[in-house]
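Subject: design request, 134 residues
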């Protein structure tokens, strides 16, 4: 076995001596980095909203159509039982909240906070749209 190992080593040394050393091309690094960049771009996920614009438009059209239908085709005569149920619940709601009084500062906060949230949502939407833009 030792003899065969020596023969293999000699064969390998002979092959290594015959083979010349190869060096990479001049732009080897730039080619590799370009391929890495392509792979990174493929991994990058594009931003897709949960609800598409067409669905939003269809929902808006449905709401508008419902409002138009109700305003044009609703009759002045309504079912009395429905009116009684509405009055019953409106009385309960008004009695429940009749003892609550808010100061001016609290009312201002209740009005301003939703407006500020809407502004922040708009700003964040623009930020993420620019971030995920290719």
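Subject: RE: design request

Done. Sequence follows.
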């Amino acid at each position: 076995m030792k003899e065969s190992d020596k023969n293999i080593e000699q064969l390998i040394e002979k092959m290594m001596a015959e083979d010349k050393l190869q060096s990479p091309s001049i732009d080897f690094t730039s080619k590799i980095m370009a391929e890495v960049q392509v792979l990174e771009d493929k991994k990058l996920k594009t931003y897709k909203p949960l609800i598409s614009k067409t669905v939003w438009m269809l929902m808006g059209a449905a709401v508008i159509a419902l409002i138009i239908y109700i305003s044009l085709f609703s009759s002045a005569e309504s079912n009395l039982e429905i009116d009684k149920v509405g009055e019953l619940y409106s009385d309960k709601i008004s009695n429940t909240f009749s003892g609550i009084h808010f100061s001016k500062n609290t009312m201002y906060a209740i009005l301003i906070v939703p407006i500020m949230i809407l502004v922040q949502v708009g700003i964040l939407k623009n930020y993420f749209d620019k971030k995920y833009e290719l």
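Helices lie at 2-18, 28-43, 53-73, 80-96, 104-131.
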